[in-house]
């Protein structure tokens, strides 16, 4: 009877851990897809949205709780709460267990920041939300180092596919952010103030476009300013 109970609790712990990891990976993937605006409602139904991201995160937290409780109850592993909650206190692969414990605390911090987002503001919440990537990385290392199924083909496939998808979307996110920042700086560099130029200069420049009697004085000044800007930009 004890052997059957050990098998049940151990299988629940394994299944809960892998399910929590896959849901976490999906939540991160959906979050990165939303941040890179990879979804296009004009081409297919909008399946990727914030509600799906939040739902996957909640499910991941639930199965993580199942994983932790099953590990604590399992009579074979015999983990106590100190080993589960304190990094490097475990008698079983303490370094790899520590990665999972730190990921747990970071996930709790992110969850709390979401609840108090109106108090801390969007900017602070956004900075803390980036830690989700660290949670995913730590959970991956924890699973590889402590999981009993790590050497199986299906487990390797889950870790590999999840890591590749997250990595590709993260690279896309960084690329788009860098391009947007570069475009903002370039656009700001060519803003020319609409200042009034000296009379002899703009009269000479605008003779090829029309006489002063054909264009108002204000319009002539603005036209000359943009003409000078275009010439300087061409010369550079």
Fill in the keyword field for this structure.
236 residues, mainly alpha, 10 helices, 75% helix
Largest sheet: none
Strand content: under 5%
The shape, in one word, is globular
Report, as a whole number of angstroms, the end-to-end distance. 83 Å
Tell me the Rg in angstroms.
29 Å
Helical segment tally?
Answer: 10
- How much helical structure, as a percent, in the residues? over 70%
Give the total of beta strands.
Answer: 0
Q: Low-confidence spans: pLDDT under 50, at least 5 residues?
A: 195-236
Provide the residue-averaged pLDDT: 78
Structural class: mainly alpha
- Please write the string of helix (H) and strand (E) elements: HHHHHHHHHH
Describe the structure in your own words.
The chain is globular and about 65 Å long. Helix 1 (2-35) runs antiparallel to helix 2 (50-73) and helix 1 (2-35) packs parallel to helix 8. With 236 residues, the protein is an all-alpha fold. The chain has helices at residues 2-35, 50-73, 81-85, 94-115, 117-120, 122-129, 131-146, 153-189, 199-206, 217-235. The chain starts with a helix and ends with a helix. It is built from ten helices and no strands. Helices cover 75% and strands 0% of the residues.
